[in-house]
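Predict structure. Chain length: 258.
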Amino acid sequence: MKLVIATILATLALAPIALADGAAVAAPQPEQCDVPESLLASDADLARVTNAVKTKHRLDISVVGSGSSALAGPDGIRSAYPARLEDVLKQRLVGTEVKVTAHVQAKEITATMVSGLSKILADDKPVLVIWQAGTADALNGVAPEDFHASLDEGVDSIQAAGADVILMNMQYSPRTESMLDVSAFADVMRLVAQAHDALLFDRLAIMHYWNDAGAFDLYTATKKYDMARRVHDCIGRALASQIINAAHLDAVRMQTTR
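Prediction complete.
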């Protein structure tokens, strides 16, 4: 069992070894990794985000996640999707101060994340929390009903603190789907998002689409960081689009620049 978990973790990391010290690192380049509108659409709105951008011209976002929200290597922090999200939002929301703060702890299950939310909310004072969860729970054998209870509690506390919520589910990996069934956890995240009028960033379906469309070959094993960095860049761009659409920020920007 330990060998299976180690294999899954290495695969989900998308980049199991580090670059040599001092290696030159190129800046991420835009990818041809479009996402169908149906995978980003939601009936929920990010009303607090809209208000913050419209009235304060500022957007504070906290990302809470486990290992798949980070990248190792010398450029890991600036290549992971939280930093890429910040860069893209700054480019697209001219005149808005954007800050994305990442709180990432490898192998941390959702119940443990919940216990740390109050400090994150107090310190960051975000108007949006992006909460990546599910993978560590599945790997550690957490019952889906316990995962549901923890996720409910966490979303309640985030919304009570005055922040919008985007739940991000697990990565897709064709190499591990036969070893780790995450469908029950993905279903829970969708139900919790609907119950709380929150958004779901369906990373599982999006990465599945990219793999099927040939944007990325997620089956072939690699020991290079290149693909991992490109996937994170694409996730950051897709997240930015979902946020801008759900908060109607294109309309707000037009109003404030007239």
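Summary: The chain has twelve helices and five strands.
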